[in-house]
Fold this sequence. Notes:
alpha/beta, globular, 7 helices, Rossmann fold, seven-stranded parallel sheet, 7 strands, 43% helix, binds NADP nicotinamide-adenine-dinucleotide phosphate, 238 residues
Amino acid sequence: MIQKILNGKVAVITGASSGIGKAIAKRFANEGAHVVIASRDIVKGQDVVNEIVDSGNNAIFIQCDVRREEDIKFLFEETMKKYQYIDIVVANAGISGGKERVIDYDLTKWSDVLQTNLTGAFLTMREGFKSMVGKGGHIIAISSQAGIEGYAGKGAYCASKFGVRGLAHALAEEGRAFNINVSTICPGTTDTPILKASQTNVQNPMNVDAVADAAIYLATLRGNALVRDIVLERMILQ
Ligand SMILES: NC(=O)c1ccc[n+]([C@@H]2O[C@H](COP(=O)([O-])OP(=O)(O)OC[C@H]3O[C@@H](n4cnc5c(N)ncnc54)[C@H](OP(=O)(O)O)[C@@H]3O)[C@@H](O)[C@H]2O)c1
């Protein structure tokens, strides 16, 4: 029998009801992981669970709004109750916040982008880290190319994604003593529903598989290595 590379591992993935999170969830499950799909939309989340279970793999859905501390605590408590340990956490849930110049940006919209993308990642990584103390594990935060350079019309999004990288790098230093690895993936424009919301129109977006491949690489990292960021740029620009 072929040994799958994530056999028996438990992975919590926020924002796994769509796009990049869904692709990572399916890939992890195919490699033998027990996957916990966490997002707000029960129907979309359950559809992903059904797809995974129908192909003979393991997944459950736990409804969770990453902006709410009590939801994140519930997510990790329920996962620990069911599986007793967590090996991999992917802090992926995010929104685009549309496209508008900073001088026109509304405070309510700003707060929502920061609350979802940065505070949501903070809560996910904090509770994920606590669940790994004593055993170790890997936390993967989905930042963005917009977490490395600024883009006009994307001020709040860039601020949130730069923030996610800073937070992940700080947590990586704290993780050394606990054998908890913390990395980011910074994808360029990738073909998911978020593109419509962000009014991004490019001819050749990356495929979600590129991000899922990077997540598998991190989740199976060996040899005492710490990878801070994996930056994925589109190959053909246009
Ligand atoms: N696509 C790109 O070009 C690109 C590039 C770089 C980075 N990223 C990042 O990749 C991540 C995934 O985005 P995507 O492109 O896959 O977009 P997507 O298809 O729109 O997926 C976003 C996911 O986040 C979840 N979500 C949003 N707000 C949430 C909240 N408050 N609580 C819990 N879940 C929430 C959504 O689920 P529910 O609606 O069910 O809550 C959905 O599953 C984001 O962090 C995004 O910034 C994307």
